[in-house]
Amino acid sequence: MYFGVIANNLDLIFAGLKLTFAILVLAFGGGLLLGILVAALRMSPLRPVQWITSAYVEIFRNTPLLVQLFFIWLGLPLVGIKIDAFVSIVVALALNSGAYLSEIIRGGLQSVPRAQLEAASSLGLTPWMTLVDVVLPQAFRAVFPALVNQFIATLLGSAVGTVVGAPELTQQIFYLDSRVFRTVELLLFLCAVYAFLTFLITQLGRVIDRRLQWATR
Amino acid sequence: MKSRRYLEYLVVVILAVALSILGSLIFLPKSGETAAASSALHKIKERGVLRAGLPVSGGLPVASRDASGAVIGFLPDLAAEMAAALEVKLEVVDTTDPNRFPYLQNGTIDFAWGTITLPRNEVVSFSRPADLGAQSGLVLKSSGIADYENMGGKKIVVVTGSTGDILASKQWPNNEFVRVDAVSTAIQAVQSGQADICIGDWAAFNEAGKTDSNLLLLPILKYEAVGLMLPQGDVVWKEWVDNFLNDILVTGTTTSGDFTSIYRKWFELDPNPELMRWM
């Protein structure tokens, strides 16, 4: 085992890590916005809106992320939309996590008892005030652990970008391996980095979750 | 409570790392084993199966699958000759450019196919040259690219770790690169306009050009010696493979001696005469 190969290539590794963070933040941010929008639309009384949003959720939850990425990177140029590998993985992950997040958020919104909405209405709260002051705080607390899980899934999903050449962390490690042929050492290091990052996210999530629970007492 | 949770997490991480290291060490030869007993040749005979690491997803003429799912191509035919000479069954393991090395190191495959380079030789052994391969460029006819002049600003797609990658990275270090896992993905990147030019194996590009008239195969950039990649330092297995190649290429004493006809069948040309000079 020779781990010197990692110390000698820190620039490359940090460049990959930076891109992984960029993919994570953009894809999760985009996915969250999409998830909120789709969750709201799925609860719409209009049937066509429900059908379209349901179709989106089912398509992106029931097909592999890898295939979605190839479709965006290789398929969209056929209809004149050409986006590079980095944007392709961000879009694919945002669409994929958006489908999961919409279901998480919808579950959260539906977890607020109907009686509270009626109580808010009888107290004279407007629908907007009911949403902001009554529904969203409770829904957010209810779904927070699931949001953390999805954040971790998005981080790990960013590694799929390697198949289209997005130079994120996994791609940089594979590139390095193709030059130095230290597969076991590099894969162990890669696993350790992802495990460390997910550990940090989990711990941070627990701290925030605890505070959210305290706030309700 | 909190420190206990951290402790539990630490134990899990240490166990995972220890198991990974243990797993990788299991595949290393044990000290004290004789060269013959620890050789891949001995293991192949013992298990009755030759595991060939072939780039099935790379496409014809080297290797591919037919409509029935059977593996076909030049390398499967050559591997079948090897298995017949060894009197064992043949098992094909689909192998990409990057994973040939770990597969050979951990014993998943008994041999792979690849260009002989000195950095690779530091981690795997090579047989005598078995073919003279070539690297070239593949572009869309509509791209206006007809040669390797004015490559500035062109986006190059290569298979990570292939000799096309190494050659292009050296020749055009300032260009933007897209590195993918498979030749098929690299070719599709050119077809879809995600890259301007693909640098890689001439034979695979020539085959792709037959099915897509929009593609243009550029002149050969460089010739290279190609051989069978073998587990590093396995002299017994390497000696057998070298003698098998000599037999099938020239003498035909114990094999069919049909290398030339297998080569003609798939490449539609004769093996390069330089091959014989390397005997």
Describe the structure.
The complex is a heterodimer of chains A (217) and B (279). Chain A has 217 residues and is mostly helical. Helix content of chain A is 81%, strand content 0%. The termini of chain A are far apart. The relative contact order of chain A is 0.15. With 279 residues, chain B is α/β, with parallel strands linked by helices. Chain B is built from twelve helices and eleven strands. In chain B, the strands form three sheets. In chain B, strands 5, 6, 7, 8, 9, 10 and 11 form a seven-stranded mixed β-sheet that branches. In chain B, strands 1-4 form a two-stranded parallel ribbon. The model of chain B has no long low-confidence stretch (mean pLDDT 88). At the A-B interface, helix 4, helix 8 and helix 9 of A face helix 1, helix 5, strand 9 and helix 8 of B.
Rg of chain A, Cα atoms, Å = 21 Å
What sort of overall outline of chain B do the alpha carbons produce when their principal axes are compared?
globular
Strand-pairing-aware structural class of chain A: mainly alpha
Roughly what fraction of the amino acids of chain B lie in strands? 15-25%
Unreliable segments of 5+ consecutive residues of chain B: none
Number of DSSP helical runs of chain A:
9
The oligomeric status of these chains comes to heterodimer
Task: Tell me how many strands of chain B there are.
Answer: 11
Return residue spans of chain A where pLDDT drops below 50 for at least 5 consecutive residues: none
- Quote the distance from N terminus to C terminus of chain A: 53 Å
Tally of helical segments of chain B: 12
Helix-residue proportion of chain B: 40-55%
Order of helices and strands of chain B: HHHEEEHEHEHEEEHEHEHEHHH
Largest sheet of chain B: 7 strands, mixed
Number of strands of chain A: 0
Pair with the most extensive interface? Answer: A-B, 28 and 32 residues
Helix content of chain A: over 70%
General form of chain A: flat
Radius of gyration of chain B: 21 Å
